[in-house]
């Protein structure tokens, strides 16, 4: 099925050969090599006059996977004159590119051209898009470009490489699994950052960890609402909580958190993870309806409500507003609740929403980010 | 106009990345992933930051964001509200503008719609110094290039 995509390019190329006076360099290096690989007996349809640089040919056909996270994408490298690079990349965005990247190359001052690297969704027709964009900008000839299907594992690996051990506060380090902890005697949380949120570097994670350090004295039951990589749940256990539960709507987060718990030698007797459905109504009402859709949905029992001593929710403003009742319902009266993932300017909104539910609301801030903490009101409502 | 201090401490720029991301929906998947991952930028930090800043928009509105990646793997980004053409299409409920703008009218909108769009656009970093009237005028201009007529009242 990936072959279909290349045949489409081939027909466009051959039809434009008749009109090639306009485009002097119309290059598809990957095309001939691939075509030759597939069917060596057939005559190449592209005439030998075209010299095709093979510098960027790619040889492996990446198998398209079903999840959007690893869905294949097209990466196109375009060369165009420097002075119109900005306008041209904006035009590309209008005509279907998902992203354009312009490299600032200092040693490229002598040549007039600059490279734009653009990413298109797999279904997009790259040639049409580029010719429309060139047209709208006023280029007389279509700039030369090369298309390749993106290797998703490359960028995943690259982002993971950039993580270093982080000292959140004195005596608490977050260490990626492939690095050694700089201070072996401190509390070290070993993480495999992966694709879930929570590596310890973000101000909101820091705010929550500092809050946890103050709140957890020993023996509490802790709920991490929106657990991501599980970092807060693991930290709570390391600070002395007796039982930690992490819930999230993203299956990737649950897998990541499970993995990280194993890295820190935390077993299922004091650490549990649940995947919850992402609709905002309470799970007990909808679980029967949704149970066919969710593959690993574990119902949160009615008895779980009002049993946690400390709850932290590090998500975003809108979910915090919508799920306020749900979050607070898990806490026993008088329990401490921490909320983060909000910008300082969003704090008044959160305070408005949560003041009927919490007492003693206090706000701490790092950079532009804020963390709210309060105690659940003692009288039930 | 940058101050001398800013010029001296300016970090070397590695690349400028433009992306279209739905509001509140940044994930470490394509297109965000490969585009940022290539420069070893902290994907999760960007996603969280972007999602937090776009909370006030309706979910899934396509926001255009420009990221400046510096050589030391840090980055800055500015988020712009969706293009005027997108707003006009949404307000009119049409998929695309007229095929022959100037000759064929695709649909009509009232001045109220334009006013609402102008108010949203005024919070854009680039339009803050323009009076509401001039923003409206430029929106009406864009509408006419799409074949959308603007009338005082829709009946």
Question: Would you write up a description of this structure?
Answer:
The complex is a heterodimer of chains A (381) and B (155). The longest helix of chain A has 16 residues, at 2-17. By secondary structure, chain A is of the alpha/beta class. In chain A, helix 3 packs across helix 4 and helix 6 (203-215) packs parallel to helix 7. Chain A folds into 2 domains: 73-153, Alpha-Beta Plaits; 159-277 and 304-376, Rossmann fold (3-Layer(aba) Sandwich). Chain A has helices at residues 2-17, 29-38, 85-94, 126-137, 152-161, 203-215, 231-239, 251-263, 283-290, 317-322, 324-329, 347-354; strands at residues 73-81, 99-103, 113-121, 145-149, 166-169, 172-176, 187-191, 221-225, 243-248, 271-275, 308-314, 331-343, 358-366, 369-376. Mean pLDDT of chain A is 72; it is low at 1-67 and 280-302. Helix content of chain A is 32%, strand content 25%. In chain A, strands 10-9-8-11-12-14-13 form a 7-stranded mixed β-sheet, with helices on both faces. Chain A has a 4-stranded antiparallel β-sheet with strand order 2-3-1-4, covered by helices on one side. Chain A has a 3-stranded mixed β-sheet with strand order 5-6-7. Chain B is of the alpha+beta class and 155 residues long. Chain B folds into 2 domains: 10-80, 2-Layer Sandwich (Ribosomal protein L11, N-terminal domain); 84-151, Arc Repressor Mutant, subunit A (Orthogonal Bundle), CATH 1.10.10.250. Chain B has helices spanning 4-8, 32-37, 43-53, 84-92, 111-122, 132-145, and strands spanning 13-22, 62-70, 75-80, 107-110, 148-151. A 3-stranded antiparallel β-sheet of chain B has the order 1-2-3. In chain B, strands 4-5 form a two-stranded parallel ribbon. The radius of gyration of chain B is 19 Å and the shape is elongated. Chain B starts with a helix and ends with a strand. The mean pLDDT of chain B is 80. Chain A binds chain B through residues 68-71, 73, 75, 89-90, 93-94, 98-104, 106, 117, 119, 121, 150, 152, 154-156, 158-159, 161-162, 193, 195-199, 201-202, 204, 316-318, 341-343, 346, 369, and chain B through 12-20, 24, 27-38, 40-45, 47-48, 51-53, 55, 59, 64, 73, 83. Strand 2 of chain A pairs antiparallel with strand 1 (13-22) of chain B.
């Amino acid at each position: 099925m990936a072959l279909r995509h290349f045949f489409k390019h081939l027909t466009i190329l051959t039809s434009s050969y008749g009109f090639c006076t306009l485009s002097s360099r119309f290059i598809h290096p990957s095309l001939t090599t691939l075509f030759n690989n597939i069917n060596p007996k057939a005559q190449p349809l592209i005439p030998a006059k075209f010299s095709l640089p093979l510098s960027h040919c790619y040889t492996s056909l990446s198998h398209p996977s079903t999840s959007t996270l690893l869905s294949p994408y097209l990466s196109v490298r375009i060369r165009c004159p420097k002075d119109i690079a900005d306008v041209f990349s904006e035009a590309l965005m209008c005509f279907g590119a998902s992203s354009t990247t312009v490299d600032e190359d200092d040693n490229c001052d002598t040549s007039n051209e600059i490279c734009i690297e653009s990413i298109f969704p797999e279904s997009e027709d790259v040639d049409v898009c580029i010719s429309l964009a060139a047209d709208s900008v006023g280029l007389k000839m279509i700039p030369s470009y090369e298309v390749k299907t993106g290797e998703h594992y490359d960028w995943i690996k690259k982002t993971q490489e950039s993580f270093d051990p982080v000292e959140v506060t004195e005596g608490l380090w977050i260490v990626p699994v492939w690095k050694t902890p700089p201070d072996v005697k401190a509390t070290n949380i070993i993480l495999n950052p992966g694709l879930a949120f929570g590596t310890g570097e973000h101000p909101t994670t820091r705010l929550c960890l500092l809050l946890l350090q103050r709140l957890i004295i020993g023996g509490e039951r802790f709920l991490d609402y929106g657990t991501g990589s599980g970092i807060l749940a693991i930290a709570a256990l390391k600070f002395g909580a007796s039982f930690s539960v992490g819930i999230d709507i993203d299956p990737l987060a649950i897998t990541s958190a499970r993995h990280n718990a194993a890295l820190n030698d935390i077993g299922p007797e004091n650490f549990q993870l649940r995947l919850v459905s992402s609709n905002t109504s309470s799970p007990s009402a909808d679980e029967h309806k949704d149970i066919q859709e969710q593959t690993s949905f574990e119902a949160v029992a009615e008895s779980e409500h009002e049993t946690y001593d400390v709850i932290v929710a590090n998500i975003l403003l809108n979910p915090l507003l919508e799920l306020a009742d749900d979050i607070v319902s898990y806490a026993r009266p008088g329990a401490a609740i921490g909320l983060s993932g909000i910008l300082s300017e969003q704090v008044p909104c959160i305070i408005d929403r949560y003041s009927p539910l919490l007492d003693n609301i206090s706000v701490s801030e790092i950079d532009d980010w804020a963390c709210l903490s309060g105690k659940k009101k003692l009288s039930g409502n | 106009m940058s101050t001398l201090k800013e010029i001296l401490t300016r970090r070397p720029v590695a690349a400028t990345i433009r992306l279209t991301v739905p509001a509140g929906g940044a994930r470490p998947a394509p297109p965000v992933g490969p585009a940022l991952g290539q420069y070893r930028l902290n994907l999760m930090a960007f996603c969280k930051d972007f999602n937090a800043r776009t909370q006030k928009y309706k979910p899934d509105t396509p926001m255009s964001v420009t990221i400046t990646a510096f050589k030391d793997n840090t980055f800055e980004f500015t988020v712009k509200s969706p293009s005027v053409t997108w707003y006009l299409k949404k307000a009119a409920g049409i998929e695309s503008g007229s095929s022959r703008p100037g000759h064929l009218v695709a649909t009509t909108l009232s001045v109220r719609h334009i006013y609402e769009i102008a108010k949203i656009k005024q919070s854009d970093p680039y339009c803050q110094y323009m009076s509401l009237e001039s923003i409206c005028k430029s929106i009406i201009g864009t509408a006419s290039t799409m074949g959308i007529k603007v009338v005082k009242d829709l009946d």
